Amino acid sequence: MDFASDNVFGVHERIMNAVVAANAGTSPSYGVDPWTREAEQRLSELFERQVTSFLVMTGTAANALALAQLVPPYGAVFAHADAHVMVDECGAPELFTGGAKMIGIAEPNGKITPGAVARVIAGFIRAEHDPKPAAVSIAQATELGTVYTPAEIGKLAELCRIKGMKLHMDGARFANAVAALDCAPADITWRAGVDVLSFGCTKNGALALEAVIFFDEKLANDFIYRRMRAGQLLSKGRFLGAQMLAYLEGDLWLNNARHANAMAKLLADGLARISGIRLAVEVSANEVFAIMPRTLFQALSGEAHCYEWPGMGSGLVSPGPEEALVRLVCSFRTTEEDVGKLLRLAGAVRPLSAGRQQSAEQRP
Hints:
By secondary structure, this protein is an alpha/beta fold. It has helices at residues 13-22, 34-46, 59-70, 84-87, 92-97, 114-122, 150-163, 174-181, 223-229, 238-248, 252-272, 294-301, 336-348, 354-362; strands at residues 52-56, 75-80, 101-105, 132-139, 166-171, 196-200, 210-214, 278-279, 287-293, 307-308, 323-329. It is 40% helix and 16% strand.
């Protein structure tokens, strides 16, 4: 059993078959192939308007390049303190923007609010001695598996317009958010005021595929040079286009996410019924965060790969000294049998207090 991440599983068979099929014969290079051109059109159809899209290979590249397009080197980007762009990308946004300041805001449930962003900006009173507020970046779904509603996104977008900033969305788990909200992709992107989306595919069944999607073609001006300079223009680009076509065909992207979300809900409901375990945040997408006795976590992690979560700026209820905050992630390949095994194991373990555990270990 593996609940460590939705990255640990392989590629969906339909996507892998599409890559194999694209391997036959020859094709123009560097993204001018028929697969990529059709995929770009399909993305416009998906978002119900003409979008300007660029296929890349990693989520970090998608986020860093998107922000570099929006933000000058002297700019500031506001994001949640636990956001991937803040803590998991090795300073890539700062590097690709040429030195822009990333500013983390700690708020509950992994989401930032317009009020919190406005309060931080209000402290920028020293003119050129402060970085220039340039963008807000939100994750959808968030690092805690929560989702922004269209109304919440709209309020952030309104603040961005008032302050002359742009709104970027890190959509590494975008499909899971769409499935959770049961809405159209357009409803939580351009209709709500998002300027640029990092459209994630890899966590949801692709091999190595993300897309940077601009909802205003003017914002994409010269982005082709950024992608090339960053080493993200794949010479055999047809393999990215083939992945995207298979990912979108027959709503595979959405069906994969619905399955992962359903498995997470099943897991969360089962854990909540086990004595000593409580959910740290309501489950919306495909991630479950549970607080449990540390001895139980140790027993579980020996059988099911999962992580203790630091929750640095999440605003979650902190676990006690003998407890652990545990993240469990479901994917398109997680099965009901996997969930059942984990729940049976969690229910069978009787965690001991620290004192009792020491006494038991001292017995011959």
